Amino acid sequence: MSPHLIRRRRTEVLTQLPKRNDAPIYLNMTDEQREIHETLASRVARLVGIFGKRPLTQAEHLQLMQLLNQMRIVCNGLAQFNFEQTWKALEDDA
Question: Where do the DSSP E strands lie in the chain?
Fold first, then answer.
């Protein structure tokens, strides 16, 4: 395959790419997003409170990481957070 496949390293390509241009767009969360986000935040606060007294167990640490990830997903959109329900609704509409 090597005669037909061109492989280039990231360091070789970076100099040829244009500069990254980020344009942040700030939006307010919907009321439903905010409600779910606050619920998750209270669970995060509980785990952080435990961490203030003692190290978290592996299960608690994994739960904390999962909650923080869920908070990020909720900010992106509820369709991602409630994917199974949203997908089912889309299938039913088709």
Answer: none
